[in-house]
Write a structure and sequence with these properties.
The complex is a heterodimer. Chain A is mainly α. Chain A has one domain (about 50-270): MetI-like (MetI-like fold). Helix content of chain A is about 80%, strand content about 0%. In chain A, helix 4 packs antiparallel against helix 7 (about 140-165). By secondary structure, chain B is an all-alpha fold. Chain B has a domain at about 60-225: MetI-like (MetI-like fold, Orthogonal Bundle), CATH 1.10.3720.10. The model of chain B has no long low-confidence stretch (mean pLDDT about 90). The chains are: A mainly alpha, B mainly alpha. Chains A and B meet through helix 1, helix 3, helix 4, helix 5 and helix 6 of A and helix 1, helix 3, helix 4, helix 5 and helix 6 of B.
Amino acid sequence: MKKRYLYMLLMPGLLFLTLFMIFPLAATVGSTLFQNGQFTFSHYTQFLTDAYFLEILGTTLLVSFMTTIICVAIGFPVAYYISKLPPRGKSILLALAIFPLLTSSVVRSFSWMIVLGKNGLINNALMGIGLIQEPLSILYTPTAMIIGLVHLFLPLILITLVGVMENINHDLVEAAQSLGASRFSAFRKIVVPLSIPGLIIGSILVFVGSLTAYTTPALLGGKQRVISTFLYQNAITLNDWNAASAIATMMMIITFVVIAIMNKAAAKFNPKG
Amino acid sequence: MQNKSYGLTLFTFLVYLFLLGPLILIAIASFEPSTVLKFPLTGFSLKWYKNVFEVGLFMSTFKTSVIVSLLGNFLALLLGVPAAYALSRGSFRGKNTLNAIFLSPVLIPGIVLGFTLLKFIIISLHIPIYAALLIGHTVIMLPFIIRVIGSSLSNFDFAIEEASLSLGSSRLATFFKVVLPNIRSGIIAAVLIAFLESFNNVDISIFMSGPGISTLPIQMLTYVQNYFDPTIAALSVMLMIFTAVIMFLIERLLGLSYFTKR
């Protein structure tokens, strides 16, 4: 086909994205570098010296980091278990992991409000058996955020890892065992290294997803702000467009840096070179 | 393996309890007759299901959500199908870059995209909120349309297309009569996946609600922050059933392997 036609087919979509995605993003980033027509970094230095903002940034990074670690620690063994099931069992467990993934994040966060709330399942159960007298405040804390985010992203890392582990030749594991390796060391020396690229991709998805998630922190975090709810607050509640633009730019930079670092790592650890 | 590990089986069971338990609890809670969600239930009632239909804002935002998702889907197909076709059919300079640009909306944090759209489309260009909502949803649906239809096209044997062309059919007629019918299941699956993505979206929509305009997830979010009655639980159950039906259709069309590929 003539190249001219190909470009014609691509043009409408490309124009649309340029006008409604690339241009708004570029203009937002650009606007943060000027004040009264003068080039300046002051929007950023202002934030990076503000204790309140640094605390929010710290909480966000900590919550995202904890979420990623927990997702990996839980997801890895479970994905291994699923990947070795016979086809029927595997399909059922995969479907049960995909269903929450497709369910609205509002519904999923709300479900944790029922579980963790003052009148929630956990408090009622603990008070019912007399373990505690007063209801625990779990809801509206960073812990609640982490629980909600793990619930949100665990399916993602599960299905990513199952996708990678399915391709591991399990004859290798059996060969190692028949040559005298214990089950655990066969797992550690064969399955783990071959899963690392998938593990890194899964971790990127979870970490970046947690870093930028809005619904879960907004519903479960209470007064504790994270960077995404802080962006929303500045834009909508406080109408501070300069601050919101600077936060948006920082979120993009952090996202791209994380993706770049982890992609490098994934390439380096890829056993296929 | 003969020596199955019971520990790992139990662990997997507990992890699935964590994943699905809260969703099951919503379903149970939706039958609570009193006005406050609590456990254990004090009785059994279907009145909150009825209440969902009586809260006007749920019905009107549901309508907005469906219209925006369907129209946005249509726009994304108009823009995405030709692009997906060009990207999988041709080899030309800048193909990888163009492919990356078309898939990039999934990489940009949704909340950032939502904010920049608000700032430039609504405030600077003075585009009405409803149109901006539609534009934003089209942007986020485009990568899903391109990815799913692109992978359908990569499985399509273009020799069939060549045969049709060499027998004298025009390019356009060939596309509609030969190519499209062959990738039909991919297109339907792409539409369903993009629909869910748009219908559940919070990050973009939250910046684009104005007087009388809002989507269902945003309305639910606002409701949950102010009330704690079982209406939201009943509505959630309905949405979960809806999600399950769409997921079943996607599985029929593409298989579960669509989700495990990265």
